[in-house]
Amino acid sequence: MFMTRSDDVPLELWPRVDLAERAGADLLVSVHNNALPDGVNPFTNNGASVYYNQPRSVPLARAIQAALVRRLGVRDLGIGRGDLALVRTTWMPSVLTEGLYMIVPDQEAALRSPRGQRLYAEAVLDGIRGFLRERALEP
User: What is the Cβ-side half-sphere exposure of residue 1, based on CA atoms within 13 angstroms?
Assistant: First the structure.
């Protein structure tokens, strides 16, 4: 497992995909947090969602989505197909998570706290483990 960045320094999207492919990654998981455009009520329009592009990524998206909802205690906004650079061109299963909303005060506080960050990370890890367990059982 490796991270393409751990601070707030921008890194273009395509190099991230290239790094994963050159490293021989089996999965690509891009962790994000959501926001809403002006005029949309964040108190009624928030929750976790996971995006994928290729059908091979659907089981990974479902597993991580279920774990995010369970661990973070947020509303389930489901999974969806997205034409997103990080998940579009990979050969490996790849997803982009939107676990919490930065503009909802209690979720922002969770994102700023070590405990909240750990819960988010553990949710993603739970989802990956669940996906890999199911994959191992496939004939």
Answer: 7
